[in-house]
Design goal:
The chain is mostly helical and about 150 residues long. It has one domain. It is about 80% helix and about 0% strand. Helix 2 packs parallel to helix 6. The chain is globular. This is DUF3429 domain-containing protein. Keywords: Membrane, Transmembrane, Transmembrane helix.
Length: about 150
């Protein structure tokens, strides 16, 4: 298996990563400008956020299995963390939308914090953490604006 470049993300990685923001942005725009379908669209935003938060948690499962240089405690921490985003995402689906969206923001920020902790103990590609920051910021901003819109519009 060929390793990814350490200095710049492959084009397809950037396209897939940033392309994953399109539902966040698109759903937010629809929520902002389509009052009639706002409850459905808000539910779609919460659901998409929950799916993506669970997905990014799984990255740490993969890191625990494949990264060289992690000791047993660090691997155990990565495995444990990898399931926590799904455990944050699940109740977000069950809460009233504004609270669920805020819980997802907490999950994305906590995950980015975990990414930062991981980078301190192992080597990841140079592009990984900046890309994760940008993805976290845009997703979280969309979730926050969605939560505010729904809370104020209710």
């Amino acid at each position: 298996m060929k390793a990814l470049s350490l200095s710049s993300s492959p084009r397809y990685v950037a396209l897939l990563g940033y392309g994953g923001l399109l539902p966040f942005v698109g759903l937010l725009l629809l929520i902002l400008f389509t009052v009639e379908y706002r409850p459905f669209l808000t539910h779609a935003l919460v659901a998409y956020g929950a799916v993506i938060l669970s997905f990014v948690g799984a990255l740490h499962w993969g890191f625990a299995m494949t990264l060289q240089g992690l000791n047993a405690d660090q691997c155990r921490e990565r495995f444990i963390w990898s399931v926590i985003p799904a455990l944050i995402a699940w109740p977000a689906l069950l809460l009233p939308a504004p609270l669920g969206l805020l819980l997802l923001i907490f999950g994305f920020v906590a995950h980015y914090w975990q990414d930062r902790r991981l980078v301190k103990v192992t080597t990841l590609p140079d592009w990984y953490l900046p890309m994760r920051l940008r993805l976290t910021l845009v997703a979280s901003l969309c979730l926050l604006l969605g939560a505010i819109t729904v809370a104020v519009g209710s």
